[in-house]
């Protein structure tokens, strides 16, 4: 690898050290592949942490964003814009009747959900899951069930209580008259790729508080249905989306079921860049692209990937749905991720012993085969030369 330029070295020095970045500078992407500053290519099974849903530089959102860039970048939420309203209609149709609040990220969508539930119910209490991850802003962090992430930022927002995933009795016991919101990830992403049981989510839906499903990572087609909750047989009051919605452009949204709507009034909440015309135009193209044919392919690729993972050396368990999968290992996940990167495959961790795979939804069978071959070599079944 060539030595980094002076400008890159200076850039590292000028960024706050909030990420443990790999020594890899990505300069270009196309489909399921990215290229580094030396021209070396990598098969990307992380997709920018489940963000590049249709693959890098997909022609549909690219064309929509370019067209919108030539027309209007920003108007503010003091006025109506066509892309935001068109996206709201598309999402409402997918949901079955909902109102949308647009923002810039998953954490912002969670903050909106927390405020909405408090305003709607008059109750400050929140029930969330141990091991969950909802974001790093203060409200979202307070509802994140990972104490290690709280250190240095306490006291947090009070009133949040945590229960174990899929423990129905603990969930019911945690809900009292102070709780206005139950906040669940249908699949705990960073917390180990742990899917919630249908029974568990059904109980949560039947309890008095509003139910918010955080689909920031597992929504927008990733499980083989547009919303992950479609696989669980429930209709939540609130849903949050972000990551894959605009294929890499910043966007987040809180969807409120039309039967739960009415709590927010003008001035209750806002987001300067929320509903940005360029991001919303790209998101409209993404929503249109996630049709039945693609959803069927996502399910098919997910089954093939899960079956291939299950027989790899050192894999003790596979978890997840569709193209959000976790392989529980008998060793350090971070070491395997590093080895895969050396051999031309980008994957993620989800805890100390879980490798997380969240590739673009448009991958083909050959991409699955290549990823499994590199993972097999990284886990000790063959030792191909690094690319």
Structural commentary:
This protein folds into two domains: 6-53 and 291-378, Aspartate Aminotransferase, domain 1 (Alpha-Beta Complex); 59-289, Type I PLP-dependent aspartate aminotransferase-like (Major domain) (Aspartate Aminotransferase, domain 2, 3-Layer(aba) Sandwich), CATH 3.40.640. The N and C termini lie close together (12 Å). The strands form four sheets. The protein has a seven-stranded mixed beta sheet, sandwiched between helices. The chain has a four-stranded mixed beta sheet with strand order 1-2-3-15. It has twelve helices and 17 strands. The protein has helices spanning 6-14, 47-50, 59-69, 82-95, 106-121, 138-142, 168-174, 198-206, 277-289, 292-310, 333-342, 365-378; strands spanning 26-30, 33-36, 41-44, 98-103, 125-129, 160-163, 179-184, 187-188, 194-195, 210-214, 238-241, 252-257, 315-321, 324-329, 345-346, 348-349, 354-357. It has 387 residues and is of the alpha/beta class. The model has no long low-confidence stretch (mean pLDDT 96). A hairpin with a 5-residue loop joins strand 8 (187-188) and strand 9 (194-195). Helix 3 packs antiparallel against helix 9 (277-289) and helix 4 (82-95) packs parallel to helix 9 (277-289).
Q: From N to C, what is the helix and strand string? A: HEEEHHHEHEHEHEEEHEEEHHEEHEEEH
CATH architecture label of the largest domain = 3-Layer(aba) Sandwich
CATH top level of the largest domain? Alpha Beta
How much helical structure, as a percent, in the residues?
25-40%
The N- to C-terminal Cα distance equals: 12 Å
- Main β sheet profile: 7 strands, mixed
* Low-pLDDT windows of residues: none
Class by SSE composition: alpha/beta
Instruction: Count every helix, treating DSSP H or I runs of 4 or more residues as helices.
Output: 12
Based on CA inertia axes, which overall geometry fits? globular
Number of discrete domains:
2
Please give the radius of gyration in angstroms: 21 Å
CATH topology of the largest domain: Aspartate Aminotransferase, domain 2
Query: How many β strands by DSSP?
Result: 17
**What's the pLDDT, averaged over the residues?**
96
Strand order of the largest sheet: 4-12-11-10-7-5-6
Strand content: 15-25%
């Amino acid at each position: 690898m060539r030595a980094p330029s002076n400008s890159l070295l200076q850039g590292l020095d000028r960024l706050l050290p909030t990420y443990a970045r790999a020594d890899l500078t990505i300069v270009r992407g196309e489909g399921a592949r990215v290229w580094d500053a030396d021209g070396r290519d990598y098969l990307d099974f992380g997709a920018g942490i489940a963000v590049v849903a249709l693959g890098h530089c997909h022609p549909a959102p690219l064309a929509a964003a370019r067209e919108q860039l030539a027309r209007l970048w920003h108007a503010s939420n003091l006025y109506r814009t066509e892309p935001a309203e068109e996206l709201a209609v598309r999402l409402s149709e997918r949901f079955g009747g909902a109102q949308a609040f647009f923002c810039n990220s998953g954490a912002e969508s969670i903050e909106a959900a927390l405020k909405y539930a408090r305003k709607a119910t008059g109750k400050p209490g929140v029930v969330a899951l141990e091991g969950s991850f909802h974001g790093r802003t203060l409200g979202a962090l307070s509802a994140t069930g990972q104490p290690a992430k709280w250190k240095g930022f306490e006291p947090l927002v009070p009133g949040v209580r945590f229960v174990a995933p899929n423990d129905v009795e603990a969930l019911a016991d945690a809900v009292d008259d102070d709780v206005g919101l139950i906040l669940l990830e249908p699949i705990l992403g960073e917390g180990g790729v742990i899917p919630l049981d249908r029974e568990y989510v059904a109980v949560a839906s039947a309890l008095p508080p509003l139910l918010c499903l955080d689909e920031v990572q597992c929504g927008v087609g990733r499980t083989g249905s547009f919303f992950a909750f479609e696989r669980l047989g429930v209709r939540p009051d609130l849903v949050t989306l972000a990551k894959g919605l605009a294929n890499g452009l910043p966007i987040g949204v809180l969807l409120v079921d039309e039967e739960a709507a009415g709590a927010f009034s003008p001035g209750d909440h806002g987001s300067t860049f929320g509903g940005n015309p360029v991001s919303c135009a790209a998101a409209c193209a993404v929503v249109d692209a996630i049709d039945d044919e693609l959803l069927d392919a996502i399910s098919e690729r997910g089954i093939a990937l899960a079956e291939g993972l299950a027989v790899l050396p050192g894999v003790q368990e596979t978890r997840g749905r569709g193209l959000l999968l976790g392989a529980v290992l008998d060793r350090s996940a971070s070491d395997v991720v590093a080895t895969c990167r050396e051999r031309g495959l980008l994957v993620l961790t989800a805890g100390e012993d879980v490798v997380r795979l969240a590739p673009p939804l448009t991958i083909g069978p050959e991409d699955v085969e290549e990823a499994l071959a590199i993972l097999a070599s990284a886990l000790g079944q063959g030792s191909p030369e690094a690319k």
